[in-house]
Specification:
GO cellular component, one term: plasma membrane
Organism: Brevibacillus thermoruber
Largest sheet: none
Domain Hemerythrin-like: 23-163
Shape: elongated
Number of domains: 1
CATH topology: Four Helix Bundle (Hemerythrin (Met), subunit A)
Protein name: Hemerythrin domain-containing protein
Distance between the termini: 48 Å
InterPro entries: Hemerythrin-like
Order of helices and strands: HHHHHH
Strand content: under 5%
CATH class: Mainly Alpha
CATH superfamily: nmb1532 protein domain like
Length: 181
């Protein structure tokens, strides 16, 4: 029987029943509105380019850009709180080069890269935008949605419960103060 590396077993979701302290519960609660915004832009993005008879998708892309921009304005402070407060506290115990923190930071970066690529593509849009180009541009928003949907689930079911069990009362107080500032 092969052994699962310790850092892999920590990502298995075995901690999901843990009651979270207030700062961790806050981070988890922030996922709800973010998920709603993300699902709304993904629904629109999935429809873009579907009607091949339509010759200009620039209006729908502009609407998608508004939704993505609004989402990013909410996502950035949330991810900064995780990266600047939670991840360093956890890294004291499990490091950040490999394992859960490395995965979370990689997924943050991957999602941000897709959102940035979407934004940059929108800056270079020349009207009219045909279905093929519109689908290509919208695909970056869909990729970010896919990464973040999975990412939020990992945080809620594995990372936050792991932090609850790992961090001391003093560290939880420090996290609470950091989230308020």
């Amino acid at each position: 029987m092969s052994q699962v590396p310790h850092h892999c077993s920590m990502m298995s979701g075995s901690h999901a029943h843990v009651t979270l302290c207030e700062p961790l519960a806050q981070l988890k609660r922030e996922h709800g509105p973010l998920r709603e915004q993300m699902d709304a832009f993904a629904q629109l993005a999935a429809q873009i380019g579907m009607d091949q008879a339509k010759t200009d998708w620039s209006r729908q892309l502009a609407e998608l850009k508004e939704k993505v921009d609004a989402f990013v304005r909410e996502l950035d402070p949330h991810s900064e709180r995780e990266e600047g407060a939670l991840f360093p506290l956890m890294a004291n115990y499990i490091g950040r080069q490999v394992g859960p923190i490395a995965v979370m930071e990689y997924e943050h970066e991957l999602a941000k890269r897709n959102l940035k690529t979407f934004k940059e593509a929108m800056e270079h849009v020349k009207e009219p935008v045909d279905a093929e180009r519109a689908k290509e541009i919208a695909s970056y928003a869909l990729q970010a949605h896919a990464v973040l949907t999975d990412h939020f689930t990992k945080e809620e079911n594995v990372l936050f419960p792991m932090a609850e069990n790992m961090l001391s009362a003093e560290e939880k107080d420090k996290l609470s103060r950091a989230l308020r500032s």
